[in-house]
Write a structure and sequence with these properties.
Keywords: Membrane, Transmembrane, Transmembrane helix. The chain crosses the membrane at residues 6-24, 36-53. The protein is of the alpha+beta class. Helix content is 25%, strand content 45%. The longest helix is centred in the first third of the chain and has 25 residues, at 2-26.
Length: 170
Amino acid sequence: MYLIWALINTALIILFWALVLTLFSKGKQLFNNKYGNAIIVIFVLGVIGMLSFKEIDIKDNRYVSDMKIENKDRDKIVSRDVRLEDNGIFHISLHTRYLEEADKVTLLHGHATRSGFVTGFQWKFGSMVINKNKNGEVTYQVSGSLRWNLLGFNIYTESKYFEGTFTVAE
């Protein structure tokens, strides 16, 4: 389904830009045919979608701790990248940086991003929790939302929740 949605978005974007170029070359003649009303609707939706487009600020998509790290603790800082979802056309990855102590972990920085063929999708990172369990593994819970957009308009918002574990030695 993700691939179909991305292809629909790509086709509509190409159609919109083709209409813009045709409008410059043919002018008003573009609308004087049996598809004139459909062309106007696609053109207007594309213009409104482009004018209202706002990329999610990357600062809103990150957790950054204000904890001060002492020099003696700098060698206890661990960074991990974990792939949360891989659906064939894009993936969502978790990036963490935490302070590893004997019985606990303290999250210093974390975010989840999407990459790949992402046309028509917008990822909004929600929250993240990491803990150390008795086996020495680090457990994580990540939530966020995946927005399904069509020409810049939000059509559907899918809530996402991921949980899992990774070991320090990875």
